[in-house]
Amino acid sequence: VNCTRMRLSVFALVCLFLTACATREKGRERISFNKEWRFALTEKQANASAPDTDDSNWRVLNLPHDWSIEADFSLDNPATPGGGALPGGMGWYRKHFKLPESDKGKVIYIDFDGVYRNSRVWLNGHLLGFRPNGYVSFRYDLTPYLNYGKEENVLVVQADNSDQPNSRWYSGSGIYRNVWLSKTGPIHVADWGTYVTTSSVDKGEAVLNLVTTIVNESDTNENITVCSSLQDAEGREVARTQSAGKTETGREAVFTQQLTVKQPELWDVDTPYLYTLVTKVMRNEECMDRYTTP
Q1: pLDDT tens-digit profile of 196-211?
Q2: pTM of this structure
Q3: How does pLDDT run across 118-154, given as a tens digit for each residue?
Q4: Could you give phi then psi for residue 91, rounded to 5 degrees?
Q5: Is 54 in a helix, a strand, or coil?
Q6: 248, exposed or middle or buried, with CB in 10 Å at 0-12, 13-18, 19+?
Q7: Is the separation of the CB atoms in 95 and 87 below 8 Å?
């Protein structure tokens, strides 16, 4: 009986240790936000940005979505044949979602890979921003306006492609690329915050220069360690470095590092080999963020 209890105790300790390690290593979540949007193609939708608007009769669809390609081709459409001879118009997208209480304290962004065009985005009735360009990727910080637990969130996107013609080729209309929900710790790698160059590279050795921008959105100045690990195509670590430094609340900090790789696999069109840089932002033993760069 004592041996059995001992084995159970050891097993429980191992489980606790593995759970703690998994929590420390988690860092960042990037979740596809493409499913179950509600859509209406209309310029006269009253209060479409309000969270309590009744959208129960709207069409339910998954992204990416292009409403123009669903219509009929016509020489009479204002886009003209040069723009695809399809109609534009104004579309509304609404997504209902909930977040667990455990997400409190995290920084949560919405990332749009592309919305064509003149897009406005609201969360729970708060206007997050306006993006006229239809091709550029962009993000908004949702954190200040989020609800947690049982209370619902409503994300609304307006895409206005009614001013035609506006393109020399077919552009499509709407949220025509992927959407992502990103969750990080309050101290994290900035959006597109890694910059990697090679100062020298040949079959014998490659020297990589790393510049990493860290954002501190916590309430206090914090000492952190930026750990950079280069992994090969099989996920094996081939080089590593780390740098410690201080971050100030509400500000960015830039960390510069260097990695040396012996006998690197060189990329070419016949063997398009890729390494992955894994950047971890550590506060003591806690992984605040884990960011990958191919």
Answers
A1: 999 999 999 999 999 9
A2: 0.87
A3: 999 999 999 999 999 999 999 999 999 999 999 999 9
A4: -120, 150
A5: coil
A6: exposed
A7: no
Instruction: Supply the pLDDT for residue 150.
Output: 97
Beta-carbon contacts of residue 262 (< 8 Å; ≥ 6 apart): 204, 205
Query: How much helix, strand and coil, in percent to the nearest 5, is found in the chain?
Result: 15, 45, 40
Residue 186 and residue 289: Cα distance in Å, rounded?
9
Contact in structure between 170 and 135 (CB atoms under 8 Å): no
The answer to whether residues 161 and 41 touch, using CB atoms and an 8 Å cutoff, is no
Cα three-residue angle 187-26-100, rounded to 5 degrees: 85
Helices (H) and strands (E) in the chain, counts: 1, 17
In a 13 Å sphere around the CA of 178, the CA atoms on its Cβ side amount to: 7
Q: Cβ contacts of residue 146 below 8 Å, gap of 6+?
A: 99, 103, 108, 123, 124, 153
Give, as one character, the DSSP assignment of residue 271.
S
